[in-house]
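Dear colleague,

As promised, here are the two records you asked about, laid out in our usual form so they can be pasted straight into your sheet.

NAME FIELD: protein one
SEQUENCE, THEN STRUCTURE:
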Amino acid sequence: MKLLTASEETFEAKLLREAIARASAVDEKVEAPERVRWSKIKDRLRPTQTALGFDWCFYKLKNFTSEAAAQRYMDSKARLLARSATE
């Protein structure tokens, strides 16, 4: 495997190298977050419509193995909507 010089390094490789350097520089031990029951905090948490939309998209997209599979799924949904609109 050929090692790249700094000028030949890709942008992604540079980002990864910098992230690893930052992570290894942290000396503090990260404490586990406090766990709170949903019933106690649900009145204080209000996700935005945008956040819900992004979460839904990522949930759906992680089930597709390729762009073509996602397009086939969306086409099938469009056909169902068109069929129900004509009935």
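NAME FIELD: protein two
SEQUENCE, THEN STRUCTURE:
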Amino acid sequence: MFHQDIDAAYPTIEEMANFAVSILPVADRTEVSEFIDHVLTGDYTNSELKALWRRPDADVYFREGKHVRLLLGLMKEKLAAKRSGEG
């Protein structure tokens, strides 16, 4: 989903979040939303979020954990909008 050149096609974090949510299978949306909620409501520092993001050898690198937090927050909002029929 987040391949190394995603920023060429989706240069902003919001565009990346839109893309990620748009290709997420409907059957997976609840589970992904719950995972994101768990991560965002956890007591993770920005450093820990950055490490969590990089754990599966992600091709997309964020210099700061606050950007991971922002991406996940946007994805959560967009998933909630899709559930309520807005997106």
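A couple of things worth noting about protein two: The chain has five helices and no strands. The helical segments are 6-9, 13-23, 26-41, 46-54, 65-83.

Best,
R.
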